[in-house]
Amino acid sequence: MESGGNSLPSGSDGMKRKISYFYDPEVGNYYYGQGHPMKPHRIRMTHALLAHYGLLQHMQVLKPIAAKDRDLCKFHADDYVAFLRGITPETQQDQLRQLKRFNVGEDCPVFDGLYSFCQTYAGGSVGGAIKLNHGGCDIAINWAGGLHHAKKCEASGFCYVNDIVLAILELLKIHERVLYVDIDIHHGDGVEEAFYTTDRVMTVSFHKFGDYFPGTGDVRDIGYGKGKYYSLNVPLDDGIDDESYHSLFKPIMGKVMEVFRPGAVVLQCGADSLSGDRLGCFNLSIKGHAECVKYMRSFNVPLLLLGGGGYTIRNVARCWCYETGVALGIELDDKMPQHEYYEYFGPDYALHVAPSNMENKNSRYLLDDIRTKLLDNLSRLQHAPSVPFQERPPNTELQERDEDEDDGDERWDPDFDMDVDSNPLNRRVKSEYAEAEHKDAESYHKHLDSRRDITAFKEIACSKVSGSGVDPVAMDEPFIKEEQDNLNELSDHKSR
């Protein structure tokens, strides 16, 4: 199955792709709070590496248009979006009931500029989808996106707005079928839930399963109704290495591409599946992680690359920089160039980090069993579904801002984005750089695990559908909405 794609070398002789890279220089200023593992500052660090490796000059660099209320409401509930727009650190004590209702305040804290942050990262992902739809690029990249846990009516797992669902809805305006692939260590539950009953979106998630957030993503969760067999879950155990990971990823994704034949692919590149992540427990190298990007690139299908998790921020920046090079077909020198965040990468100052010697708890028998089950599920799909378009939403205008228009020729300047430290939020980020990255990690592990609820997933899906009364995705077919007897059957299934 490894020959499923037209394999391309990742070096300078690889086939070139036209890349659109979305980046807002303010994104690194947002700050979840002291001790919180999620640090948007990692996006600025990634950008600095891209600039000093000379990659920006090989891409179209675009500043995303902030997503508007109506854009977010194409998936999210109106009252939830209104809540995000209005809540501030100063007013949150007056809205305790709303905070609880929308699951905001613990893992997903209220911080300065929260709504603007959501608009920024969602705008980049939707902008990438629009760019792909218009044929303006072969690959679109938004490392600030990929927040896959957010639900229609609530925040979850550091995620407030599900930019991935919004981007997929945009791609569905042009493409009959869209494939979503998730290599974050956590299950892509929010995206799977949104498209669980449609055959137009296939979701494939490779993740740690067991006593681990969010507790969903069993191999037996395969979709429902029209979506049966269009959700694939690859549950993994601690310590999985490159070889074991690819023994599943390549045959499964090769078969998916053969059977499903998507018009576009969205790949969430969460870097918490890397070895040594602050909240993770996998043992992938940066090259092993990037091999997934290289493999999906090889199929020559429009590709949207998104960020996601990743909590050892120096390794996140390393990974996404290297994967940008893979997207471009440019091999990067392991010796890191001098730049303003150089001190983060000591003592070796190298792009790549060796995996650890941790035990791989994924036995050959377990891996073979998972692969057999999933390939069997895929064999049940007789052909790629074809859906006629009826009264589909109008195409979104291509109106992203080019950095050339905003800032002259700044996008080629290695120092672009490095003069924004006057922002008080950024000063707080800078001051926290010295904080040891392992501080509070153990407490977050315990907190995330304690909030795990394996069975609540289907109940949430049903309650949101039955309570909404509207088509949640505003497309030509009701992706999530099903007849009441189907919902009852799904409720029975979850209690098995």
From TrEMBL:
Its EC number is 3.5.1.98. This is Histone deacetylase. The active site is at 149 (proton acceptor). GO terms for biological process: epigenetic regulation of gene expression. It holds the Pfam family Hist_deacetyl. Keywords: Chromatin regulator, Hydrolase, Metal-binding, Nucleus, Repressor, Transcription, Transcription regulation. It comes from Cicer arietinum (Chickpea). Residues 383-423 are annotated as: Disordered. Residues 36-324 form the Histone deacetylase domain. The gene is LOC101513443. It comes from the Eukaryota.
